[in-house]
Here is the input.
Amino acid sequence: MNGKLTIPKVQKMKAAGEKIAMVTCYDASFARLIDQTGVEMVLVGDSLGMVIQGHETTLPVTLTDIAYHAAAVARGLTKPLLIADMPFMSYQAEFGAALKNAGLLLKKGNAQSVKVEGGEEVVELVYRMSRVGIPVMGHIGLEPQKVHKYGGYKIQGKGAAEERELIKNAKALEEAGCWSLVLEGIPLEVAEKITQSVKIPTIGIASGPHCDGQVLVIYDLLGMNPEFKPRFVKRYAEMGAAVTEAVKNYVDEVRSGKFPDEEHSFRRNLIALPTKKRKIS
Ligand code: KIV
Here is the structure.
């Protein structure tokens, strides 16, 4: 826990009016880089199904996938709080299985919290998890695991009844024990009202500026997929184009024989191999 940000510290940031930054991450190399940025929280999201595994939705992601990636990320992090997503059907069917699955993400994935999507249908589960010491981040609004129910990724909470439902669910999740809430794909006015209705921090994505913090998928903010340009993503780099350019240059140099040159090669008299004394019997 040395130097690691804790849940109570993140919660105090809301009370102090300090904004909270969160990004997703899926491997140790990115985790080491992110660790140096001052970001408060890192999420091993089931978005890995799309950006890492190449699926169209998050639904095929398994608990084993999340535990594997969370453990890798944990090895690269020293400061930010680590949260692991509970994938589709790892918590919806039975309380017992859900508790064990969440426990595994803390034990094997080294996460400090899990995240579950859902409103009143997960309230009892959140209560049971919190009671046994498994911190839960809630996730309401556009819940990607319900993509087939919505018929696509659609902004939620546009109408008055939907708004009331979201506020009611946010309050119920807080009361059940959620220590924070992701608000995804919600009009900014509604996200503001939810944020004012609860004492726990709200972390927004596609939900405007009035949430207590923000989260983006790391590959989106780095521009890893040049074709993916939704309105809510701001790109802070063009890594996709940079990767393609770098690999093209490498291919050209391999073909032309420019790489590897003398500087990137070894000569016999330059190789300093460790010498081992052999026992001569
Ligand atoms: O899976 C994910 O990455 C998420 C965030 C975008 C909130 O749930």
